[in-house]
């Protein structure tokens, strides 16, 4: 049971990382006018990714200023998520896996 919970939490962090990367790439494509937000499918994807990533990125954007117009907060958030996946999750779930299996 502990391994299953670890698997779910780890994969949720992985999906969040993927959403942040896709959101950043989509924002570049919109900024360079490669794709248009008036397309209904692109607009729906944009709104979904914005709803998922903004609550996580917003606190970091308040703290970290844009460097020359480039927002580096997604990079910082990705580093924190990856650190949590590699170091904190095994530390937290190690005892739980030992007890529950």
Fold topology:
Layout: H1 2-31, H2 40-63, H3 73-100
Helix pairs in contact: 1-2, 1-3, 2-3
List keywords for this structure.
101 residues; mainly alpha
Can you tell me the overall shape? elongated
* Largest sheet report: none
Integer-rounded radius of gyration: 17 Å
Tally of alpha and pi helices: 3
Unreliable stretches (pLDDT < 50, length at least 5) are none
> How many structurally independent domains?
1
Describe this entry's structure for a reader.
The chain is mainly α. The chain has one domain. It is built from 3 helices and no strands. Helix 2 crosses helix 3. It is elongated.
Write a concise synopsis of the structure shown.
The chain is mainly α. It contains three helices and no strands. The protein is 81% helix and 0% strand.
